[in-house]
């Protein structure tokens, strides 16, 4: 049986499962609303109950962590506790226990896994940049600071810089407020609006590019696409600021062998056998690595380049 952990509304998961149905493969999809009931870890056996079915992890042939959090209990169970300190403590205690239990569960599936919650949810961008330096992978000049003075010196040195999220958070909507986490340009003129200190933020020099590359890595193969985003002011800084009226030209691309080899080593450090990678090809004919996204959508690479990644993932899970 193939075990899949995802969210109920994830389109890519659904497309892969259609192929598994076509291949006549047995699978179980656990969504973000699925609780692991009657979970047992006894000696070398780990099991839980889904519906009326007992699932024993040793019977799992492949495990695909796509997205979402593993839950062993409903947070709603604690709502009746009026004491705020006790409520906070019990939430914290349960999360800590849950973390160790899920780590044990996924460890038992590691040799059969296409990624895991443990590896995909804990990518530290700053640590990745450090690893790139050690592997000889070029990256933009980077500053992390909460000081306006330090930021001003950085802008003065590089003239134009960008800022982006320090970690891989999803955009958030709370009521009428939308937290936009896209890359933004910063110049000396922008600094006047900032206070002397602010929340810790990540800044990089703005790299002039010929084109961007989004590469999806699956097991040992890179499926890459060149995105000619620099020709459109709307997408020049961040191609995710899509221009639906006049989309960027996107074509299949092959990474240089030396760069692909270094990127494989980078992914091995973080125990990832599936991830999306963002790279820039600069006007100075250099490749500069931006970041790893273990969970990012791959459909935007698959369709324009006819890679049929849903089939490739399904084939891997079915093998």
List the SSEs and their pairings.
Blueprint: E1 2-5, H1 11-22, E2 27-30, E3 37-42, E4 45-50, E5 53-56, E6 62-65, H2 84-108, E7 113-114, H3 117-120, H4 125-135, E8 142-147, H5 148-158, E9 161-164, E10 172-174, E11 177-179, E12 184-186, E13 197-205, E14 209-218, E15 221-228, E16 249-253, H6 257-269, E17 274-282, E18 287-293, H7 299-305, H8 309-318
Parallel strand pairs: 1-2, 1-6, 6-7
Antiparallel strand pairs: 3-4, 4-5, 8-13, 9-12, 9-13, 10-11, 14-15, 14-17, 15-16, 17-18
Helix pairs in contact: 1-8, 4-6
Structure overview:
The chain has 319 residues and is of the alpha+beta class. It is 29% helix and 30% strand. It has eight helices and 18 strands. It has helices spanning 11-22, 84-108, 117-120, 125-135, 148-158, 257-269, 299-305, 309-318; strands at residues 2-5, 27-30, 37-42, 45-50, 53-56, 62-65, 113-114, 142-147, 161-164, 172-174, 177-179, 184-186, 197-205, 209-218, 221-228, 249-253, 274-282, 287-293. It has a five-stranded antiparallel β-sheet with strand order 16-15-14-17-18. Strands 2-1-6-7 form a four-stranded parallel β-sheet, with helices on one face. A four-stranded antiparallel β-sheet has the order 8-13-9-12, with helices on one face. The longest helix is centred in the N-terminal third of the chain and has 25 residues, at 84-108.
